Amino acid sequence: MPTPMRDIARILREHDDIAILSHENPDGDAVGSAAALGHILSRLGKRFTMANASPLPGQFSWMDIPGHWTTALPTAYGFAVALDCGDAARLGPLEHAVDPARLIVIDHHLGNPGFGALNWVDTTSSSTGEMVAALADELGVPLTGGLGQCLYVAMVTDTGDFTFGSTRPETLELAARILRAGLDVGETNARLKNQWSLSRIRLWSEVMGGMTQHFDGRVGAIAISQETLIRTGTSVEDCDGLVNWALRVRGVQAAVAVRELPGGQVKFSLRSVGNVDVQRVAASFGGGGHKNASGGSLDGPLDAAQATLVAAVGASLGAPIAHV
Ligand code: 5GP
Ligand code: MN
Question: DHHA1 domain: from which residue to which, for each copy (predicted)?
């Protein structure tokens, strides 16, 4: 058992009014791990608030989310716990509101500087949800009901449905425990996945149709402009997961997705397979993440940002490998 986890369990047992924070534009691991911690605290009879710079994305509105989800830090809190945040900037505007002396960090990103007073960073964990499950075990809370559901959503999201290399035996064992504790896996996955709008389908068709290939087909690139988002009536949530599909093209070892932000800045997502390390590339632009999935932002315009990233990703590729 890692010591920071025991210390965190002790603090949660001994204190009340916990602020649960997660990264802005939260994905399933951020929402799932934050809500899972809320369930744990609720079962321990504690008061808590879930605060995130972004409102709860509509795609997660069906989830069993305990308590309230607010976009501002509560005025009074005992400790704050930042979940799934690779660095303090991932908290968005909440970064400057939170007191670092009362901040606990629970995360699994490479290169996390440990920006809290107490930091539990496990880069071998496939999701932050997996770490929160260990905390539930330590605190004697069973993985039933909403807790199991939220943990499962966190795991499914960050492991790409248990397909990424980060999926370890412990991940599948935890999923099995959650199923044994009563999770309806078919219904949960249906509610998580079958939520597309026709607008989203149109966005994806257009963006995927515009995919380009570079470096002898080893790098795939897609771009999402503000104009496309406005014309298709879609939002940032609808772009979630798009980048992964560039990896489906035979021979592609790394995928680059760029998305234009309203102010002209560009948000990027990188994905790779095997030993191609896109975390280093993202870090060289001030971003971060994992070896096979990373992100960050840089200046526009969109096409110049894409060219810069494609060149950087291409330069990080090793010698070509034979394809079967
Ligand atoms: P996504 O491409 O899905 O937005 O993010 C992929 C991974 O990169 C996630 O692990 C996420 O936490 C990380 N990531 C995405 N954007 C940023 C960023 O701006 N800064 C840092 N440090 N990490 C990011
Ligand atoms: Mn995560």
Answer: 232-303
Please state, in angstroms and rounded to a whole number, the distance separating the CA atoms of residues 302 and 294.
18
Q: Is the Cβ atom of 296 under 6 angstroms away from ligand 1?
A: yes
Instruction: Mark the residues whose beta carbon lies below 5 A from ion ligand 2.
Output: 29, 84, 128, 158
Homologous superfamily assigned to 4-194: inorganic pyrophosphatase (n-terminal core) (3.90.1640.10)
Tell the residue nearest (CA) to atom 15 of ligand 1.
295
Helices 3-14 & 128-138 angle (0-180, nearest 10): 60
Q: What is the pLDDT along the chain (324 residues), one digit of tens a residue?
A: 558 999 999 999 999 999 999 999 999 999 999 999 999 999 999 999 999 999 999 889 999 999 999 999 999 999 999 999 999 999 999 999 999 999 999 999 999 999 999 999 999 999 999 999 999 999 999 999 999 999 999 999 999 999 988 999 999 999 999 999 999 999 999 999 998 999 999 999 999 999 999 999 999 999 999 999 999 999 998 998 999 999 999 999 999 999 999 999 999 999 999 899 999 999 999 999 989 999 999 999 999 999 999 999 999 997 665 554
Q: Which atom of ligand 1 is nearest to the CA of 240?
A: 3
For residue 270, give the ligand 1 atom closest to its CA: 2
Nearest to 273 by CA among 318, 213, 309, 223: 318
Q: Do the Cβ atoms of 149 and 188 come closer than 8 Å?
A: yes
Residue spans per domain, the chain: 4-194, 200-316
CB 58 within 8 A of CB 52: no
ipTM, two decimals, is 0.97
The ligand with the least distance to the CA atom of 241 is 1
